[in-house]
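#struct-pred

JT: dropping the chains for the assembly here, can someone run the whole complex?
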Amino acid sequence: MVMQEERTMEPQTTPGPATRGIVVQKLNAWYGPLQALRDVSLTILPNRVTSVIGPSGCGKSTFIRCLNRMHEVVPGARVQGKVLLDGEDIYAPGVDPVRVRRRVGMVFQRPNPFPTMSVFDNVAAGLRLNGLRRPGQMSDAVERALQQAALWDEVKDKLKQSGSALSGGQQQRLCIARALAVQPEVLLMDEPCSALDPVATSRIEDLVRALKERYTIVIVTHNMQQAARVSDMTAFLLMGDDRAGELIEYGQTRQMFTNPRDERTEAYITGRFG
Amino acid sequence: MPRADFDRHLRVLQDDLLVLGSMVEKAIAKALDALKRRDLEASRQLIQEDDVIDQQRFQLEEKCVELIATQQPMARDLRALIAILHISVELERMGDYAEGIGKISLMMGQEPPLKPLIDIPRMAERATDMLRRSLDALVNRDIVAATGVCNADDEVDALYDQVYRELLTYMIQDPKTIQRATYLLWVAHDLERVADRATNIAERVIFLVTGKMTEINVSRY
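RK: done, full complex below.
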């Protein structure tokens, strides 16, 4: 693997030892007997947008699903290695995966608002699960999340309408609001714009740039221009001979897209394979 | 093969750039030839022909913009387009120097030449050679050859020094020669600039290959 900043696993912009952000050490993941990821090690910087790129099947989604213990939800799936969230290993014995997922939120490819719930209840759902009951507090928290997801102005008069009545782009921002409502530290986004039109995509991208002030963001994308536009750091994964994904290169986005170090990254981002 | 279409466009673009390069090379040769032979008609023609060089450069620029907009090139592809864009500007400016020499020739008019031209044609020869080598380095993506072009600039600078000293001696000895000596000094200056721009082209080749922007050999002028 090629590291662009020095020979250590941490780019120079890291604020001291890995107290914040996510440190991934020798992460391996399997689906039954099939290895999906091999020995992935990298440091995701706090308050930065990190994009994960690579051809289909290279383990991008598996990788981010390992960052909030969603991978193990699939029957037969397992993980080996360490994922330190602010210094704490999320795979250590005794760690509650539900708590991990509250700290590391996730947004998926297709907007998936709860179909039977209103806009308000969609955002409130996570808060209720986390035990927030007082109505005043609840509406404040819902408004805050919708504001942060840049959706409030569009839905403030239709909070009681069904979430699935919104447009695709609005639904995706509703899902982002739902994830933000529980005040996570990290937001994982798995191809959040692949089902959206260019205008809705551009709104999500603006939102991602704004959200990094408060959150650490990891975004999986097939759209290289999107990775180039929104992210500070880029990780390139590629599958090895046995189809297990490996980290080929990780570095600053501007460097990765103008002058990547590895020939395989070059070939991929210039569209010559993958 | 993926990106075959883009690769084809890039090859055509590079060929167009080489055409521009050879137009500029011919213009410089023509400018020197007209100057030596005191052929004012040839100088006038040369000045007009610079428009064709300008047009070729604009077409190249438009094609670069179109490829960036429609193909979204990345990494080496992007650097190739940016390099070609810059090189086309350098070449067009070199064409302007040839045109400038043509204008100087017209200003000199029918006055008898101050002296036989020896070092100035030599400067032109070296500068044109640098131009050719810089474009070869581009075609071959050869950074060693590109670095060689940058180092060759010292020779042109040395010749320029020599021309300057010689013309200064004329002017000191006989102030009546000042006008004609100044014209020749301008010609030498134009040729010195051609060589500098050839080093700029070579630096763009190094950028294309390595992604690094560096000034290899800073000209004394």
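JT: nice. Chain B has one domain: 4-210. Chain B touches chain A at residues 1-3, 6, 72-79, 210-211 (CB under 8 Å).
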